[in-house]
Write a structure and sequence with these properties.
With about 375 residues, the chain is of the alpha+beta class. The chain has eight helices and 20 strands. A hairpin with a 3-residue loop joins β16 and β17.
């Protein structure tokens, strides 16, 4: 479940036609030796957001982040920060700080010296540097570590120091390039919450690059999902997960069952889909408009699939199958059910009883069914 930002009102700024974007990317393109890394990307990001660029390695998200930082020059397009054109502004003149995946701390400097480095470069008075460094070390819960060097810190502690060093200059925009990738799972989960809380306290706009869908879903106000240099969908975590706009997005964010079929009935409030994968037709509450005869896919998340040993009585949205595998994950189990058509369907079941007491086991015949509002119709 995504953390709900406390600083956003009921009407989100991206839903308000009067709201002005804080970061605006217009038709941004970057090519390397004829290869397109970022392809005509346009984005509007609002003040105080924690916006994530999500996608597989090589999809263009880090190149886009580096252009925002000023480390790469666009082939074409514009970048505006707080209404000012930053497209041709060098990195050192931009009101932007960046937290790198490696943290890039100076190994010969103490924590205090690392955090103070940018302020010293800017020529601030010593007293102001001392006070500001202390303030931001306290913010990231690193007070008392001032004299330690990076090799005396854990991965999570180094990450906090890198964040303090970025925030201490009070930038308008903080860019995070896979900031938690080097941490183990438990520490990464805890640090996600800490990062969100810190971001809310300082109110600075964060743009984060991640290939970890769970991380992006947990932390972000909105997500921009990228593939092959393009933005495929922009939306909040719930919107991206519950209402993907393509098969690629549905597959990338979480697990999904996809049934290819043809629309045989189209009404104001629903469509009926005939699929060779299932025994019964699929009845889907409208999520997109397609004509009769259109070839489409119906997407259904595994947690929306109900698993029973009793045959359903409805005319639609059920099928039978044989349990071929059970993946035990502690709190839930994922059942892999093979349909008569040969298609494998996933069903997520909460482990309310111990594994040995499960009523459904391997090779059992079962029935799968789901509600009409749980299907999403997607173009093939």
């Amino acid at each position: 479940m995504a953390i709900q930002p406390k600083h956003l009102s009921n009407l989100e700024p991206w839903q308000d036609p009067k709201a002005k974007p804080y970061v605006q990317i217009k038709n941004l393109t970057k090519t390397f030796n004829g290869r397109v890394a970022v392809n005509d990307v346009s984005l509007s990001i609002y003040r105080g957001e924690l916006f994530s660029l999500l996608g597989r390695s090589g999809c263009g998200k880090t190149t886009l982040l580096r252009m925002l930082a000023g480390f790469e020059s666009p082939t074409s397009g514009k970048i505006f920060i707080d209404g000012i054109d930053m497209t041709d502004t060098p990195a050192y003149k931009r009101p932007v700080s960046m937290v790198f995946q490696s943290y890039a701390l100076f190994p010969h400097m103490t924590v205090e010296q690392n955090v103070a480095f940018g302020l010293i470069q800017d020529g601030l008075p010593k007293s102001e540097i001392r006070d500001r460094v202390a303030e931001y070390l306290e913010l990231v819960q690193m007070s008392g570590y001032e004299r330690r060097k990076p090799d005396q810190l854990s991965g999570g502690e180094r990450q906090r120091v890198a964040l303090a060093r970025s925030l201490v200059k009070q930038p308008k925009l903080v860019l995070l390039d896979e900031p938690l990738a080097a941490l183990d799972k438990k520490l990464r989960e805890r640090t996600q919450l800490e990062l969100v809380n810190i971001q809310e306290k300082v109110g600075v706009t964060f743009i984060m690059v991640s290939h970890d869908q769970e991380e992006a879903m947990t932390m972000s106000t909105r997500i921009g999902l990228m593939n092959e240099g393009c933005i495929l969908q922009v939306g909040g975590p719930t919107e991206i997960y519950e209402y993907p706009n393509s098969k690629y997005v549905a597959n990338f964010v979480g697990s999904v069952n996809l049934f290819d079929g043809i629309i045989v009935e189209e009404r104001a409030d629903h469509v009926v889909v005939k699929s060779t994968a299932t025994e019964k037709n699929l009845y889907v509450t409208h999520s997109a408009s397609f004509p009769v005869g259109a070839q489409i896919s119906v997407a259904i998340r595994p947690e929306k699939v109900l698993l029973t040993t009793t045959k359903p009585t409805g005319e639609h949205n059920w099928t039978s199958g044989i349990v071929k595998d059970i993946v035990y994950l502690g709190d839930v189990s994922i059942y892999h059910v093979q349909l008569p058509s040969g298609v494998i369907v996933l069903a997520t079941v909460a482990n309310m009883v111990r594994a040995a007491e499960r009523p459904i086991q391997w090779e059992d015949e079962v029935f799968l069914h789901w509600k009409p509002e749980n299907g999403i119709v997607l173009a093939i």
